Amino acid sequence: MAKTGNHSKFHSMLQEQVRREFTASQQYVALAVWFDGQDLPQLAKHFYRQSLEERNHAMMIVQYLLDNDIAVTIPGIDNVKNDFSEAADLVSLALQQEKNVTEEIINLAKVARDEDDYKGEQFMQWFLKEQVEEVAQMTTLLNVVRRAGGNLFDVENYLARETVGETGGDPLAPRAAGGGI
């Protein structure tokens, strides 16, 4: 049976969210590479891990669309920023990105509800919970970077000591197409 086209505004918006999640993934790679180039392995590791998480989010949406017999088009991504001068700028960008994604996820949940798409609304609940965690973690990291007053080795020690973003697999997370990384 051939997959069908988009059936609703919600499904079209999910397709757009796939692009946003892949773009976020690539932006996190750019941040990780910058930190790697500055010999800051803990910050680099943190953002490489964030990149994989965003990729997995995109693939969760892809799997949801496939499971609901909706044709999926894998998009290109938006441009990512690569030029930075200070660590706080990178983490500020990451925090703003997470806040933007939160608004996008809220809009998706609203549209699913408005369209009486109960499966879609339920699917978005996990992402809403995830965004609360993402914004909180990035806010904390930005606070730590600012408090370090330019001494990024203090930030490195903090990340080596704490489990920022390392909560393990969530058994309630939606399945990612092809499996999560």
Chain-averaged pLDDT: 91
Largest sheet: none
Task: Tell the overall outline.
Answer: elongated
Oligomer: single chain
Q: What class do helices, strands and sheet pairing give?
A: mainly alpha
Unreliable stretches, pLDDT < 50, 5 or more residues? none
Our measurement of the CA-to-CA distance between the termini, rounded to an integer number of angstroms, reads: 29 Å
Strand share of the residues? under 5%
Specify the helix fraction band. Answer: 55-70%
User: How many DSSP-defined strands?
Assistant: 0
Following the backbone from N to C, one meets helices and strands in this order, namely HHHHH
> Over all CA atoms, what is the radius of gyration?
17 Å
Secondary structure tally, helices: 5
Write the layout of secondary structure elements.
Layout: H1 9-37, H2 41-67, H3 87-114, H4 118-147, H5 152-161
Helix pairs in contact: 1-2, 1-3, 2-5, 3-4
What does it look like?
- This protein is elongated.
- With 181 residues, the chain is an all-alpha fold.
- It has helices at 9-37, 41-67, 87-114, 118-147, 152-161.
- The chain has five helices and no strands.
Features:
181 residues, mainly alpha
Summarize the structure.
With 181 residues, the chain is mostly helical. The protein has five helices and no strands. The mean pLDDT is 91.
